[in-house]
């Protein structure tokens, strides 16, 4: 079993502004652990996590793939999250380059068809559109969950960029909930972009039915 990264350096004060790892984080870690063998054997060079929050997920991937052969890049709209991600990488001896940006915006051109492991645990909770817009602007805790219509407002934008980002052997791991309409997401990625997908894990936690979906070419 791969241990959960050490987050002991993060304080209550950090979690006032940064998403504290929860069931959605843990199902993602479990999904990545399930794929650990396949991930290692693909020898990924670039791992990009969108919305890294505490940095727990990228540090976990770092413990699967090692600190020296893979470049770990993350983005988050939340400045505090970028700081925590860097600290968590440091605490767990995984060098992480954390960029304060929306989705992959500043990296799109340079990372075209270059990302071997792409990860997003998005703000997936259905809310009014205005609430999601406001949360994106404020870039604080509500930005971690407010997902607008069907919880897909932010995810939808990334889905249209995935094919452009993935390398020929790239894998994309996405967390979703039932209200996001997982079959529709999978159909759309196949029909428009020719990406195959599989539900790696699904589980009920509290009031949520969570999924980890893996997309490949
Ligand atoms: C559900 S939290 C997940 C955090 C962490 N990856 C985890 O699994 O614990 C979603 C994260 O996405 C970030 N986020 C929201 N909208 C974003 C956007 N447009 N671009 C980048 N990050 C975003 C939030 O600030 C938050 O840190």
From TrEMBL:
GO MF annotation, one: protein methyltransferase activity
GO biological process: methylation
Entries under InterPro entries matching the protein: DNA_methylase_N6_adenine_CS, Euk-Arch_PrmC-MTase, PrmC-related, SAM-dependent_MTases_sf, Small_mtfrase_dom
Alphabetized UniProt keyword annotations: Methyltransferase, Nucleus, S-adenosyl-L-methionine, Transferase
Keyword Endoplasmic reticulum: no
GO cellular component: eRF1 methyltransferase complex; nucleus
Pfam family, one: MTS
Transmembrane segments: none
Coarse class of the protein's main subcellular location: nucleus
Family: Belongs to the eukaryotic/archaeal PrmC-related family.
Name of the protein in its database record: Putative methylase
